[in-house]
Write a structure and sequence with these properties.
heterodimer; A: 225 residues; mainly alpha; Methane Monooxygenase Hydroxylase, Chain G, domain 1; 77% helix; elongated; B: 404 residues; 14 helices; 0% strand
Protein backbone atom coordinates (compact mmCIF):
# COMPACT_ATOMS: atom_id res chain seq x y z
CA UNK A 1 0.00 0.00 0.00
CA UNK A 2 1.54 3.25 -1.15
CA UNK A 3 0.80 6.20 1.03
CA UNK A 4 -1.29 8.99 -0.50
CA UNK A 5 0.92 11.44 -2.36
CA UNK A 6 -0.05 14.53 -0.49
CA UNK A 7 1.28 13.02 2.73
CA UNK A 8 4.77 13.61 1.44
CA UNK A 9 4.20 17.12 2.72
CA UNK A 10 5.30 15.92 6.13
CA UNK A 11 9.04 15.84 6.54
CA UNK A 12 10.95 14.60 9.50
CA UNK A 13 11.69 17.67 11.59
CA UNK A 14 15.38 18.38 12.18
CA UNK A 15 14.90 19.56 15.76
CA UNK A 16 15.12 16.18 17.47
CA UNK A 17 18.33 15.27 15.61
CA UNK A 18 19.69 18.68 16.61
CA UNK A 19 19.09 17.80 20.25
CA UNK A 20 20.71 14.39 19.73
CA UNK A 21 23.75 16.13 18.30
CA UNK A 22 23.88 18.48 21.29
CA UNK A 23 23.72 15.62 23.75
CA UNK A 24 26.52 13.82 21.97
CA UNK A 25 28.54 17.06 21.96
CA UNK A 26 28.06 17.39 25.69
CA UNK A 27 29.42 13.89 26.15
CA UNK A 28 32.56 15.05 24.41
CA UNK A 29 32.81 18.25 26.45
CA UNK A 30 32.37 16.39 29.71
CA UNK A 31 35.46 14.31 28.90
CA UNK A 32 37.65 17.40 29.38
CA UNK A 33 37.58 17.22 33.17
CA UNK A 34 38.73 13.57 33.38
CA UNK A 35 41.34 14.30 30.72
CA UNK A 36 43.06 17.04 32.70
CA UNK A 37 42.60 15.24 36.01
CA UNK A 38 44.48 12.25 34.63
CA UNK A 39 47.11 14.58 33.23
CA UNK A 40 47.50 16.24 36.61
CA UNK A 41 47.95 12.91 38.31
CA UNK A 42 50.37 11.80 35.65
CA UNK A 43 48.34 8.74 34.59
CA UNK A 44 49.59 8.47 31.02
CA UNK A 45 47.47 5.51 30.05
CA UNK A 46 44.30 7.15 31.29
CA UNK A 47 45.15 10.30 29.32
CA UNK A 48 45.62 8.30 26.14
CA UNK A 49 42.40 6.42 26.67
CA UNK A 50 40.42 9.61 27.20
CA UNK A 51 41.94 11.20 24.11
CA UNK A 52 40.91 8.18 22.05
CA UNK A 53 37.39 8.46 23.39
CA UNK A 54 37.23 12.13 22.51
CA UNK A 55 38.28 11.37 18.93
CA UNK A 56 35.70 8.64 18.65
CA UNK A 57 32.81 10.69 20.00
CA UNK A 58 33.76 13.78 18.04
CA UNK A 59 33.56 11.68 14.92
CA UNK A 60 30.08 10.49 15.92
CA UNK A 61 29.08 14.14 16.30
CA UNK A 62 30.30 14.80 12.76
CA UNK A 63 28.19 11.94 11.44
CA UNK A 64 25.10 13.29 13.20
CA UNK A 65 25.81 16.78 11.88
CA UNK A 66 26.12 15.57 8.31
CA UNK A 67 22.92 13.59 8.59
CA UNK A 68 21.06 16.70 9.68
CA UNK A 69 22.55 18.68 6.81
CA UNK A 70 21.69 15.97 4.30
CA UNK A 71 18.03 16.15 5.30
CA UNK A 72 17.57 19.87 4.87
CA UNK A 73 16.48 20.37 1.25
CA UNK A 74 15.78 23.88 0.06
CA UNK A 75 12.11 23.03 -0.34
CA UNK A 76 11.74 22.50 3.39
CA UNK A 77 9.30 24.86 5.01
CA UNK A 78 10.35 25.42 8.62
CA UNK A 79 9.30 27.92 11.27
CA UNK A 80 12.88 29.21 11.25
CA UNK A 81 15.05 30.08 8.31
CA UNK A 82 17.23 27.31 6.96
CA UNK A 83 20.33 29.52 7.07
CA UNK A 84 19.79 30.39 10.73
CA UNK A 85 19.28 26.76 11.54
CA UNK A 86 22.48 25.74 9.78
CA UNK A 87 24.43 28.49 11.54
CA UNK A 88 23.10 27.20 14.85
CA UNK A 89 24.18 23.68 13.98
CA UNK A 90 27.60 24.99 12.95
CA UNK A 91 28.16 26.72 16.27
CA UNK A 92 26.90 23.71 18.18
CA UNK A 93 29.33 21.51 16.31
CA UNK A 94 32.09 23.94 17.30
CA UNK A 95 31.90 22.60 20.86
CA UNK A 96 33.14 19.03 20.18
CA UNK A 97 35.52 20.44 17.54
CA UNK A 98 37.27 22.57 20.11
CA UNK A 99 37.51 19.66 22.51
CA UNK A 100 39.15 17.61 19.80
CA UNK A 101 41.67 20.38 19.15
CA UNK A 102 42.49 20.40 22.85
CA UNK A 103 42.94 16.63 22.82
CA UNK A 104 45.34 16.96 19.87
CA UNK A 105 47.39 19.58 21.72
CA UNK A 106 47.63 17.35 24.77
CA UNK A 107 48.71 14.38 22.67
CA UNK A 108 51.50 16.20 20.79
CA UNK A 109 54.13 15.45 23.39
CA UNK A 110 54.54 14.10 26.87
CA UNK A 111 52.96 17.11 28.52
CA UNK A 112 53.39 17.89 32.22
CA UNK A 113 50.79 19.71 34.23
CA UNK A 114 52.51 22.59 36.09
CA UNK A 115 51.37 22.35 39.70
CA UNK A 116 51.19 26.15 40.12
CA UNK A 117 48.75 26.54 37.22
CA UNK A 118 46.25 24.09 38.72
CA UNK A 119 43.98 26.55 40.51
CA UNK A 120 43.53 29.10 37.72
CA UNK A 121 43.27 26.39 35.09
CA UNK A 122 40.49 24.51 36.89
CA UNK A 123 38.48 27.68 37.38
CA UNK A 124 38.75 28.37 33.66
CA UNK A 125 37.81 24.85 32.69
CA UNK A 126 34.75 24.88 34.97
CA UNK A 127 33.53 28.13 33.48
CA UNK A 128 33.93 26.86 29.94
CA UNK A 129 32.09 23.62 30.68
CA UNK A 130 29.36 25.61 32.43
CA UNK A 131 28.77 27.71 29.33
CA UNK A 132 28.57 24.58 27.19
CA UNK A 133 25.99 23.17 29.63
CA UNK A 134 23.91 26.31 29.34
CA UNK A 135 24.07 26.03 25.56
CA UNK A 136 22.78 22.48 25.90
CA UNK A 137 19.86 23.72 28.00
CA UNK A 138 19.04 26.24 25.30
CA UNK A 139 18.90 23.53 22.65
CA UNK A 140 16.60 21.53 24.90
CA UNK A 141 14.42 24.63 25.20
CA UNK A 142 13.89 24.62 21.41
CA UNK A 143 11.28 21.93 21.97
CA UNK A 144 9.14 24.28 24.04
CA UNK A 145 9.71 27.07 21.55
CA UNK A 146 8.35 24.82 18.84
CA UNK A 147 5.40 23.75 20.95
CA UNK A 148 4.25 27.32 21.50
CA UNK A 149 5.28 28.21 17.94
CA UNK A 150 7.74 30.80 19.27
CA UNK A 151 5.38 32.39 21.72
CA UNK A 152 6.47 35.62 23.36
CA UNK A 153 6.84 34.13 26.82
CA UNK A 154 9.11 31.31 25.75
CA UNK A 155 11.10 33.64 23.52
CA UNK A 156 11.65 35.98 26.45
CA UNK A 157 12.82 33.10 28.61
CA UNK A 158 15.28 32.01 25.94
CA UNK A 159 16.49 35.59 25.52
CA UNK A 160 17.38 35.62 29.21
CA UNK A 161 19.35 32.40 28.80
CA UNK A 162 21.16 33.88 25.80
CA UNK A 163 22.11 36.96 27.83
CA UNK A 164 23.34 34.71 30.61
CA UNK A 165 25.46 32.89 28.10
CA UNK A 166 27.06 36.16 26.97
CA UNK A 167 27.95 36.98 30.55
CA UNK A 168 29.46 33.52 30.98
CA UNK A 169 31.53 33.95 27.86
CA UNK A 170 32.87 37.23 29.18
CA UNK A 171 33.67 35.65 32.53
CA UNK A 172 35.42 32.74 30.83
CA UNK A 173 37.57 35.16 28.85
CA UNK A 174 38.60 36.85 32.09
CA UNK A 175 39.51 33.52 33.64
CA UNK A 176 41.48 32.67 30.51
CA UNK A 177 43.37 35.93 30.89
CA UNK A 178 44.19 35.12 34.53
CA UNK A 179 45.27 31.58 33.62
CA UNK A 180 47.49 32.87 30.81
CA UNK A 181 49.02 35.45 33.11
CA UNK A 182 49.79 32.76 35.64
CA UNK A 183 51.27 30.61 32.90
CA UNK A 184 53.67 33.35 31.82
CA UNK A 185 54.70 33.99 35.39
CA UNK A 186 56.06 30.45 35.26
CA UNK A 187 58.01 31.03 32.06
CA UNK A 188 61.40 30.48 33.64
CA UNK A 189 60.38 27.12 35.06
CA UNK A 190 58.69 25.70 31.96
CA UNK A 191 60.13 24.41 28.73
CA UNK A 192 59.31 26.71 25.78
CA UNK A 193 57.40 23.90 24.07
CA UNK A 194 55.23 23.36 27.16
CA UNK A 195 54.64 27.08 27.36
CA UNK A 196 53.38 27.18 23.79
CA UNK A 197 51.13 24.15 24.25
CA UNK A 198 49.59 25.34 27.49
CA UNK A 199 48.99 28.78 26.10
CA UNK A 200 47.17 27.23 23.14
CA UNK A 201 45.16 24.92 25.39
CA UNK A 202 44.00 27.89 27.46
CA UNK A 203 43.05 29.67 24.26
CA UNK A 204 41.08 26.68 22.98
CA UNK A 205 39.21 26.21 26.25
CA UNK A 206 38.11 29.82 26.13
CA UNK A 207 37.02 29.03 22.57
CA UNK A 208 34.40 26.60 23.89
CA UNK A 209 32.62 29.47 25.63
CA UNK A 210 32.97 31.49 22.43
CA UNK A 211 31.10 28.85 20.48
CA UNK A 212 28.43 28.58 23.15
CA UNK A 213 27.97 32.33 23.00
CA UNK A 214 27.78 32.33 19.20
CA UNK A 215 25.19 29.56 19.43
CA UNK A 216 23.09 31.87 21.59
CA UNK A 217 23.50 34.64 19.06
CA UNK A 218 22.47 32.31 16.24
CA UNK A 219 19.35 31.42 18.20
CA UNK A 220 18.61 35.08 18.71
CA UNK A 221 18.54 35.52 14.94
CA UNK A 222 16.51 32.34 14.54
CA UNK A 223 13.68 33.44 16.79
CA UNK A 224 13.66 37.10 15.78
CA UNK A 225 10.31 37.97 14.25
CA UNK B 1 -33.76 -0.31 -15.88
CA UNK B 2 -30.70 -2.44 -16.51
CA UNK B 3 -28.78 0.78 -17.11
CA UNK B 4 -29.88 2.18 -13.79
CA UNK B 5 -28.62 -0.91 -12.00
CA UNK B 6 -25.32 -0.74 -13.89
CA UNK B 7 -24.84 2.93 -13.09
CA UNK B 8 -25.68 2.38 -9.45
CA UNK B 9 -23.24 -0.50 -9.29
CA UNK B 10 -20.57 1.75 -10.81
CA UNK B 11 -21.45 4.45 -8.30
CA UNK B 12 -21.17 1.97 -5.48
CA UNK B 13 -17.76 0.88 -6.76
CA UNK B 14 -16.66 4.51 -6.95
CA UNK B 15 -17.93 5.21 -3.44
CA UNK B 16 -16.18 2.11 -2.20
CA UNK B 17 -12.76 3.02 -3.60
CA UNK B 18 -13.30 6.60 -2.51
CA UNK B 19 -14.00 5.49 1.04
CA UNK B 20 -10.82 3.47 1.00
CA UNK B 21 -8.61 6.40 -0.01
CA UNK B 22 -10.13 9.77 0.76
CA UNK B 23 -11.89 8.93 3.98
CA UNK B 24 -8.57 7.82 5.36
CA UNK B 25 -7.05 11.20 4.54
CA UNK B 26 -9.47 12.93 6.84
CA UNK B 27 -8.17 10.81 9.68
CA UNK B 28 -4.49 11.32 8.89
CA UNK B 29 -3.73 14.08 11.36
CA UNK B 30 -5.58 12.39 14.22
CA UNK B 31 -3.80 9.09 13.77
CA UNK B 32 -0.52 10.91 13.19
CA UNK B 33 -0.79 12.77 16.48
CA UNK B 34 -1.70 9.52 18.23
CA UNK B 35 -5.04 10.93 19.36
CA UNK B 36 -6.69 7.71 18.22
CA UNK B 37 -5.41 4.42 16.95
CA UNK B 38 -6.13 3.27 13.44
CA UNK B 39 -8.95 0.91 14.37
CA UNK B 40 -10.86 3.68 16.13
CA UNK B 41 -10.13 5.95 13.18
CA UNK B 42 -11.68 3.43 10.78
CA UNK B 43 -14.88 3.15 12.81
CA UNK B 44 -15.22 6.91 13.30
CA UNK B 45 -14.52 7.59 9.64
CA UNK B 46 -17.03 5.03 8.43
CA UNK B 47 -19.87 6.19 10.69
CA UNK B 48 -19.22 9.90 10.17
CA UNK B 49 -18.98 9.45 6.43
CA UNK B 50 -22.27 7.63 6.30
CA UNK B 51 -24.01 10.31 8.34
CA UNK B 52 -22.50 13.18 6.40
CA UNK B 53 -23.49 11.60 3.12
CA UNK B 54 -27.07 10.96 4.23
CA UNK B 55 -27.71 14.24 6.01
CA UNK B 56 -25.92 16.86 3.96
CA UNK B 57 -24.70 15.05 0.88
CA UNK B 58 -27.48 15.88 -1.55
CA UNK B 59 -26.45 19.35 -2.65
CA UNK B 60 -23.14 18.68 -4.26
CA UNK B 61 -24.50 15.56 -5.94
CA UNK B 62 -26.93 17.66 -7.92
CA UNK B 63 -24.11 19.82 -9.24
CA UNK B 64 -22.11 16.88 -10.49
CA UNK B 65 -25.14 15.00 -11.76
CA UNK B 66 -26.55 17.69 -13.94
CA UNK B 67 -24.98 21.04 -13.23
CA UNK B 68 -21.95 20.62 -15.44
CA UNK B 69 -23.48 19.46 -18.69
CA UNK B 70 -26.35 21.27 -20.32
CA UNK B 71 -29.56 19.25 -19.88
CA UNK B 72 -31.19 20.38 -23.14
CA UNK B 73 -29.41 17.89 -25.32
CA UNK B 74 -29.97 14.97 -23.01
CA UNK B 75 -33.67 15.40 -22.76
CA UNK B 76 -33.70 14.15 -26.32
CA UNK B 77 -31.08 11.48 -25.79
CA UNK B 78 -31.66 10.02 -22.36
CA UNK B 79 -29.75 6.86 -23.13
CA UNK B 80 -26.67 8.81 -24.13
CA UNK B 81 -26.81 10.65 -20.87
CA UNK B 82 -26.99 7.39 -18.97
CA UNK B 83 -24.07 5.91 -20.90
CA UNK B 84 -22.10 9.09 -20.36
CA UNK B 85 -22.58 9.05 -16.65
CA UNK B 86 -21.59 5.40 -16.56
CA UNK B 87 -18.46 6.17 -18.56
CA UNK B 88 -17.63 9.07 -16.23
CA UNK B 89 -17.90 6.93 -13.13
CA UNK B 90 -15.76 4.15 -14.56
CA UNK B 91 -13.00 6.41 -15.88
CA UNK B 92 -12.84 8.51 -12.72
CA UNK B 93 -12.70 5.37 -10.58
CA UNK B 94 -9.98 3.98 -12.80
CA UNK B 95 -7.77 7.04 -12.57
CA UNK B 96 -8.22 7.30 -8.83
CA UNK B 97 -6.98 3.72 -8.47
CA UNK B 98 -4.06 4.21 -10.84
CA UNK B 99 -3.02 7.42 -9.10
CA UNK B 100 -3.29 5.79 -5.69
CA UNK B 101 -0.97 3.03 -6.84
CA UNK B 102 1.53 5.55 -8.17
CA UNK B 103 1.29 7.61 -4.98
CA UNK B 104 0.15 10.74 -6.84
CA UNK B 105 -1.88 13.34 -4.95
CA UNK B 106 -4.95 13.08 -7.15
CA UNK B 107 -8.35 14.28 -6.00
CA UNK B 108 -11.43 12.14 -6.56
CA UNK B 109 -13.48 15.31 -6.91
CA UNK B 110 -11.27 16.58 -9.70
CA UNK B 111 -11.41 13.16 -11.33
CA UNK B 112 -15.20 12.93 -11.49
CA UNK B 113 -15.68 16.58 -12.54
CA UNK B 114 -13.06 16.11 -15.28
CA UNK B 115 -14.77 12.92 -16.44
CA UNK B 116 -18.20 14.54 -16.66
CA UNK B 117 -16.76 17.51 -18.57
CA UNK B 118 -14.97 15.13 -20.95
CA UNK B 119 -18.09 13.21 -21.67
CA UNK B 120 -20.02 16.45 -22.19
CA UNK B 121 -17.52 17.64 -24.77
CA UNK B 122 -17.45 14.31 -26.61
CA UNK B 123 -21.22 14.02 -26.58
CA UNK B 124 -22.29 17.45 -27.62
CA UNK B 125 -19.26 19.63 -28.26
CA UNK B 126 -17.88 22.46 -26.21
CA UNK B 127 -21.13 24.35 -26.08
CA UNK B 128 -22.79 21.58 -24.10
CA UNK B 129 -20.62 22.15 -21.08
CA UNK B 130 -21.73 24.88 -18.72
CA UNK B 131 -18.38 26.59 -18.64
CA UNK B 132 -19.30 29.25 -16.11
CA UNK B 133 -20.13 26.46 -13.70
CA UNK B 134 -16.84 24.74 -14.48
CA UNK B 135 -14.98 28.01 -13.86
CA UNK B 136 -16.76 28.34 -10.56
CA UNK B 137 -15.73 24.83 -9.55
CA UNK B 138 -12.12 25.28 -10.64
CA UNK B 139 -11.91 28.61 -8.82
CA UNK B 140 -13.22 26.92 -5.69
CA UNK B 141 -10.34 24.46 -5.91
CA UNK B 142 -8.01 27.41 -5.45
CA UNK B 143 -10.09 29.20 -2.86
CA UNK B 144 -10.85 26.14 -0.73
CA UNK B 145 -7.24 25.43 0.32
CA UNK B 146 -6.81 29.16 0.94
CA UNK B 147 -9.88 29.34 3.13
CA UNK B 148 -8.92 26.12 4.91
CA UNK B 149 -5.45 27.54 5.51
CA UNK B 150 -6.80 30.84 6.75
CA UNK B 151 -9.19 29.26 9.24
CA UNK B 152 -6.55 26.81 10.47
CA UNK B 153 -4.06 29.69 10.79
CA UNK B 154 -6.39 31.71 12.99
CA UNK B 155 -7.58 28.74 15.05
CA UNK B 156 -3.98 27.83 15.74
CA UNK B 157 -3.05 31.44 16.53
CA UNK B 158 -5.94 31.53 18.96
CA UNK B 159 -4.78 28.30 20.64
CA UNK B 160 -1.27 29.68 20.81
CA UNK B 161 -2.15 33.08 22.23
CA UNK B 162 -4.86 32.05 24.63
CA UNK B 163 -3.80 28.57 25.70
CA UNK B 164 -0.15 27.73 25.05
CA UNK B 165 1.03 31.25 25.88
CA UNK B 166 -1.18 31.78 28.90
CA UNK B 167 0.19 31.68 32.43
CA UNK B 168 -1.48 28.37 33.09
CA UNK B 169 -1.85 26.49 29.81
CA UNK B 170 -3.76 23.64 31.42
CA UNK B 171 -6.44 25.84 32.89
CA UNK B 172 -6.78 27.82 29.70
CA UNK B 173 -7.15 24.60 27.72
CA UNK B 174 -9.91 23.42 30.03
CA UNK B 175 -11.63 26.76 29.64
CA UNK B 176 -11.44 27.15 25.85
CA UNK B 177 -11.55 23.46 24.86
CA UNK B 178 -15.28 23.06 25.49
CA UNK B 179 -15.96 26.29 23.60
CA UNK B 180 -14.25 24.88 20.53
CA UNK B 181 -16.22 21.69 20.95
CA UNK B 182 -19.48 23.62 21.26
CA UNK B 183 -18.63 25.47 18.07
CA UNK B 184 -18.11 22.21 16.18
CA UNK B 185 -21.46 20.89 17.40
CA UNK B 186 -23.11 24.16 16.41
CA UNK B 187 -21.84 23.96 12.85
CA UNK B 188 -22.71 20.28 12.45
CA UNK B 189 -26.27 20.74 13.71
CA UNK B 190 -26.70 23.85 11.60
CA UNK B 191 -25.49 22.12 8.46
CA UNK B 192 -27.80 19.17 9.10
CA UNK B 193 -31.00 21.10 9.66
CA UNK B 194 -30.41 24.12 7.48
CA UNK B 195 -30.99 22.65 4.02
CA UNK B 196 -29.48 19.26 4.87
CA UNK B 197 -32.64 17.40 5.82
CA UNK B 198 -34.78 19.41 3.42
CA UNK B 199 -36.77 20.66 6.36
CA UNK B 200 -38.48 23.90 5.61
CA UNK B 201 -37.44 25.37 8.90
CA UNK B 202 -37.03 29.12 9.29
CA UNK B 203 -33.48 30.33 9.82
CA UNK B 204 -34.14 31.68 13.30
CA UNK B 205 -35.44 28.38 14.57
CA UNK B 206 -32.66 26.37 13.00
CA UNK B 207 -30.15 28.77 14.51
CA UNK B 208 -31.76 28.32 17.91
CA UNK B 209 -31.62 24.55 17.54
CA UNK B 210 -27.99 24.77 16.50
CA UNK B 211 -27.20 26.88 19.54
CA UNK B 212 -28.81 24.24 21.72
CA UNK B 213 -26.73 21.57 20.02
CA UNK B 214 -23.60 23.66 20.48
CA UNK B 215 -24.36 24.25 24.13
CA UNK B 216 -24.92 20.54 24.69
CA UNK B 217 -21.57 19.83 23.06
CA UNK B 218 -20.02 22.43 25.33
CA UNK B 219 -21.50 20.81 28.44
CA UNK B 220 -20.48 17.29 27.46
CA UNK B 221 -16.90 18.31 26.78
CA UNK B 222 -16.81 20.43 29.91
CA UNK B 223 -17.88 17.48 32.05
CA UNK B 224 -15.30 15.32 30.33
CA UNK B 225 -12.50 17.79 30.76
CA UNK B 226 -13.24 18.36 34.43
CA UNK B 227 -12.28 14.81 35.25
CA UNK B 228 -8.92 15.21 33.59
CA UNK B 229 -5.89 14.18 35.62
CA UNK B 230 -2.84 16.32 36.23
CA UNK B 231 0.21 15.55 34.18
CA UNK B 232 3.86 16.35 34.55
CA UNK B 233 5.33 17.95 31.51
CA UNK B 234 4.42 21.53 30.79
CA UNK B 235 2.42 21.03 27.62
CA UNK B 236 1.65 17.36 27.91
CA UNK B 237 -1.69 17.96 29.52
CA UNK B 238 -2.71 20.55 26.96
CA UNK B 239 -1.81 18.25 24.11
CA UNK B 240 -3.64 15.40 25.77
CA UNK B 241 -6.77 17.50 26.06
CA UNK B 242 -6.53 18.46 22.42
CA UNK B 243 -6.12 14.81 21.57
CA UNK B 244 -9.65 14.36 22.94
CA UNK B 245 -10.93 17.38 21.06
CA UNK B 246 -9.23 16.06 17.98
CA UNK B 247 -11.36 12.95 18.02
CA UNK B 248 -14.27 15.34 17.73
CA UNK B 249 -12.76 17.26 14.82
CA UNK B 250 -11.82 13.99 13.15
CA UNK B 251 -15.48 13.03 13.29
CA UNK B 252 -16.36 16.49 12.05
CA UNK B 253 -13.91 16.02 9.20
CA UNK B 254 -15.37 12.61 8.35
CA UNK B 255 -18.84 14.12 8.39
CA UNK B 256 -17.82 16.98 6.09
CA UNK B 257 -16.03 14.51 3.86
CA UNK B 258 -19.13 12.36 3.54
CA UNK B 259 -21.23 15.44 2.81
CA UNK B 260 -18.93 16.63 0.06
CA UNK B 261 -17.44 13.52 -1.48
CA UNK B 262 -20.41 11.19 -1.60
CA UNK B 263 -21.41 13.35 -4.52
CA UNK B 264 -18.42 12.18 -6.53
CA UNK B 265 -19.95 8.74 -6.68
CA UNK B 266 -23.64 9.39 -6.31
CA UNK B 267 -24.01 12.53 -8.43
CA UNK B 268 -23.97 10.78 -11.80
CA UNK B 269 -26.23 8.00 -10.51
CA UNK B 270 -28.70 10.53 -9.17
CA UNK B 271 -28.78 12.25 -12.53
CA UNK B 272 -29.51 8.95 -14.25
CA UNK B 273 -32.18 8.07 -11.72
CA UNK B 274 -34.04 11.31 -12.19
CA UNK B 275 -33.99 11.07 -15.97
CA UNK B 276 -35.32 7.51 -15.90
CA UNK B 277 -37.97 8.13 -13.26
CA UNK B 278 -39.14 11.55 -14.32
CA UNK B 279 -37.85 11.73 -17.87
CA UNK B 280 -36.12 14.95 -16.95
CA UNK B 281 -33.16 16.05 -14.89
CA UNK B 282 -34.68 18.96 -13.14
CA UNK B 283 -35.49 17.52 -9.73
CA UNK B 284 -34.20 19.30 -6.67
CA UNK B 285 -33.84 16.40 -4.28
CA UNK B 286 -32.07 13.10 -4.36
CA UNK B 287 -33.92 10.11 -2.91
CA UNK B 288 -32.50 8.88 0.36
CA UNK B 289 -31.94 5.37 -0.92
CA UNK B 290 -29.49 6.56 -3.57
CA UNK B 291 -27.62 8.61 -0.99
CA UNK B 292 -27.64 5.56 1.26
CA UNK B 293 -25.99 3.45 -1.41
CA UNK B 294 -23.25 6.05 -1.68
CA UNK B 295 -22.95 6.41 2.07
CA UNK B 296 -22.80 2.66 2.64
CA UNK B 297 -20.26 2.32 -0.16
CA UNK B 298 -18.12 4.99 1.47
CA UNK B 299 -18.40 3.42 4.89
CA UNK B 300 -17.71 -0.06 3.55
CA UNK B 301 -14.68 1.11 1.59
CA UNK B 302 -13.34 2.82 4.67
CA UNK B 303 -13.94 -0.20 6.84
CA UNK B 304 -12.54 -2.84 4.51
CA UNK B 305 -9.84 -0.99 2.65
CA UNK B 306 -9.16 2.21 4.57
CA UNK B 307 -7.45 0.56 7.51
CA UNK B 308 -4.39 -0.12 5.39
CA UNK B 309 -4.11 3.53 4.42
CA UNK B 310 -4.79 4.75 7.94
CA UNK B 311 -2.21 2.39 9.35
CA UNK B 312 0.41 3.83 7.00
CA UNK B 313 -0.64 7.33 7.98
CA UNK B 314 -0.12 6.60 11.64
CA UNK B 315 3.43 5.57 10.97
CA UNK B 316 4.24 8.44 8.66
CA UNK B 317 2.66 11.51 10.12
CA UNK B 318 4.36 11.60 13.47
CA UNK B 319 5.41 15.24 13.43
CA UNK B 320 1.97 16.66 14.01
CA UNK B 321 0.81 17.30 17.59
CA UNK B 322 -2.86 17.33 18.68
CA UNK B 323 -3.09 21.14 18.81
CA UNK B 324 -1.89 21.30 15.21
CA UNK B 325 -4.06 18.42 14.12
CA UNK B 326 -7.08 19.99 15.74
CA UNK B 327 -6.49 23.32 13.98
CA UNK B 328 -5.95 21.66 10.61
CA UNK B 329 -9.06 19.50 10.83
CA UNK B 330 -11.18 22.34 12.12
CA UNK B 331 -10.12 24.61 9.26
CA UNK B 332 -10.51 21.95 6.60
CA UNK B 333 -13.84 20.56 7.79
CA UNK B 334 -15.42 23.99 8.13
CA UNK B 335 -14.29 24.91 4.64
CA UNK B 336 -15.61 21.67 3.17
CA UNK B 337 -18.99 22.13 4.84
CA UNK B 338 -19.27 25.72 3.62
CA UNK B 339 -18.58 24.66 0.05
CA UNK B 340 -20.93 21.68 0.36
CA UNK B 341 -23.67 24.10 1.36
CA UNK B 342 -22.95 26.14 -1.75
CA UNK B 343 -23.24 22.94 -3.79
CA UNK B 344 -19.68 23.20 -5.05
CA UNK B 345 -17.59 20.00 -5.11
CA UNK B 346 -14.11 20.66 -3.68
CA UNK B 347 -11.19 18.42 -2.90
CA UNK B 348 -11.09 17.42 0.76
CA UNK B 349 -7.49 16.33 0.49
CA UNK B 350 -6.27 19.61 -0.92
CA UNK B 351 -8.20 21.55 1.67
CA UNK B 352 -6.44 19.57 4.40
CA UNK B 353 -3.09 20.33 2.78
CA UNK B 354 -4.04 24.02 2.65
CA UNK B 355 -4.93 23.94 6.34
CA UNK B 356 -1.62 22.30 7.27
CA UNK B 357 0.31 24.95 5.35
CA UNK B 358 -1.74 27.63 7.10
CA UNK B 359 -0.45 26.31 10.42
CA UNK B 360 3.03 26.31 8.95
CA UNK B 361 2.66 30.03 8.31
CA UNK B 362 1.79 30.47 11.97
CA UNK B 363 5.20 28.88 12.68
CA UNK B 364 3.38 25.87 14.02
CA UNK B 365 4.84 23.07 11.89
CA UNK B 366 8.43 21.98 12.37
CA UNK B 367 9.06 20.83 8.82
CA UNK B 368 6.92 20.80 5.68
CA UNK B 369 8.01 19.73 2.27
CA UNK B 370 6.86 22.50 0.00
CA UNK B 371 7.86 20.59 -3.13
CA UNK B 372 4.62 18.64 -2.62
CA UNK B 373 2.66 21.75 -3.57
CA UNK B 374 4.17 21.50 -7.02
CA UNK B 375 2.99 17.89 -7.32
CA UNK B 376 -0.48 18.91 -6.27
CA UNK B 377 -0.59 21.70 -8.84
CA UNK B 378 0.57 19.30 -11.54
CA UNK B 379 -2.10 16.80 -10.52
CA UNK B 380 -4.68 19.57 -10.70
CA UNK B 381 -3.66 20.40 -14.24
CA UNK B 382 -3.36 16.76 -15.33
CA UNK B 383 -6.41 15.18 -13.72
CA UNK B 384 -9.04 17.05 -15.72
CA UNK B 385 -7.76 16.22 -19.22
CA UNK B 386 -6.83 12.64 -18.30
CA UNK B 387 -10.18 11.67 -16.84
CA UNK B 388 -11.98 13.79 -19.44
CA UNK B 389 -10.36 12.06 -22.38
CA UNK B 390 -10.80 8.62 -20.83
CA UNK B 391 -14.46 9.13 -20.14
CA UNK B 392 -14.98 10.69 -23.58
CA UNK B 393 -13.42 7.69 -25.32
CA UNK B 394 -15.32 5.25 -23.13
CA UNK B 395 -18.55 7.09 -23.88
CA UNK B 396 -17.88 6.95 -27.60
CA UNK B 397 -17.11 3.23 -27.43
CA UNK B 398 -20.25 2.42 -25.44
CA UNK B 399 -22.32 4.55 -27.77
CA UNK B 400 -21.02 2.62 -30.77
CA UNK B 401 -21.59 -0.74 -29.13
CA UNK B 402 -25.15 0.02 -28.05
CA UNK B 403 -25.96 2.08 -31.15
CA UNK B 404 -27.79 4.78 -29.30
Amino acid sequence: MKKPGWLKIFRKAPFQPLLDHMKKSMEVVSLLKPLFESLMEGKKEEVEKTIEEIYKKEHECDILKNEIRDHLPRSLFMPVSREDFLRYLHEQDGLPDRVEDIAILVSLKDLKFPEELKEEFNILLDKAVESARLACKITEKLDELMETSFGDKEVEEVHKMIDELSVLEWKTDKKAYLAAKKLFSLEDKLKPSDLILWFNIIHEIAGIADHADCLGKALRLMIAK
Amino acid sequence: MIFLILVILAAFYMAYSLGGNDAANAMATSVGSKAINYKEAVIIAAVANLLGALLVGGHVSLTIGKGIVSPDFFHLHTQRFIIGMFASLISAGLWVQVATHLGLPISTTHAIVGAVIGFGIFAGGFSFVKWWKVVKIVLSWLTSPLLGGLIAFWVFRFIRNFILESDEPQRAAKKYGPIFSGFVFFIIVLSIIYKGLHLKMPLTRSLMLSFTGGFLGYLITWAFVKRMKKRNRKFEEVEWLFAILQILTATYMGFAHGANDVANAIGPAAGVWSIIKKGTISGETIPLWILSIGGIGLALGTALFGYKVIKTLGEDVTEITPTRGFSAEFGAATTVLIFSKLGIPISTTHTVVGAIIGIGFARGMSALNIAVIRNILISWILTLPLTGITSGILYWMLKTIFRV
